[in-house]
Amino acid sequence: MAKKTILSGSTATGDLTLGNYIGAINNWTALQEEYDCLYFVADLHALTVKQDPKKLNDRCMSFFAQYLALGLDPVKNTLFLQSHVPEHAELNWILTCLTPMGYLNRMTQFKDKSEKNTKNINAGLYTYPVLMAADILLYQADVVPVGEDQKQHLELCRDIVNFYHNRYGEKTLVMPEPFIGKQGARVMSLQDPTSKMSKSDENEKSFVSIIDTPKKIQKKIKGAVTDSDTVIEFDVEKKAGLSNLLTIYSVLSGKKVDEIVNEYQGKMYGHIKADLADLVCDTLKPVQEKYADLMNNQDYLLETMNSGASKARERASKTLKAVYEDTGLINLSSRK
What we know:
- Helix content is 53%, strand content 7%.
- It is mainly α.
- It folds into two domains: 5-184 and 298-335, HUPs (Rossmann fold), CATH 3.40.50.620; 212-293, Tyrosyl-Transfer RNA Synthetase (Orthogonal Bundle), CATH 1.10.240.
- Strands 1-2-3 form a three-stranded parallel sheet.
- Strand 1, helix 1 (18-31) and strand 2 form a beta-alpha-beta unit.
- Helix 7 (123-137) packs across helix 8 (151-168) and helix 10 packs across helix 12.
- The two termini are 33 Å apart.
């Protein structure tokens, strides 16, 4: 039987974090053996926020290098930059013309992001969930990994498929399903353990970047917020900060949380922080070494990007050709 297709991406803003590594990217390497995987850097989505062109260019290259450094095989996976496949933008427009404004008005992330970007509330910020739908539907993705903050967008994508099916029939677009992976660790902010660790957090102390120096990692972990107590136990409600550190420790070490708690009985929080900081540094060291090597070989990165984009376009063009036929648009490429 053919493998199911799975698609995921990360917006090229901020820095990929330890939370991204634990919650998503670390699982991608396992999925590449079981699924037909497509992973992309969402650089078009990044434009909903004002960007410095040079920094965005550098960040896109960095993100792509981090994908490779984290173990994503460009042979087993299709790895590409969103903007290198123009079919994303073309399908986006067609789907935008199918999507009722009322559905976009319900998107809670638009409201949240608008409050944070009061000087740049642009149309792209409002309609980008439709581009997300185009990202998914262009590759006939069967399943899509989604976190809590993206569930609403996948629901909208499924609504758009129904709109399309009702108007043009059901032969072209695949209805995507949410992918629920192993119950992973939900990594929280180091400074506000009630919030998820975010790569776009304005407070750099809140997250560990995958490419942070060992010195920075040590400082951030040791400066993580905990409670004023000294009892070492896992309690998300009463000890959110400590529980977050124990969760990270458990995932990276492979030990159960209870086992770690027992090891540190009678010790101080500082002991856990120091050992965890060393563990994080050791875990990320091979990733960082490979990343540095890749960033020193820009020609290879560009060649790999180009190869991935070609593979992605080959698939995307087939879907777009069918969409053109469904909607009555003339596709000149099909007449060559």
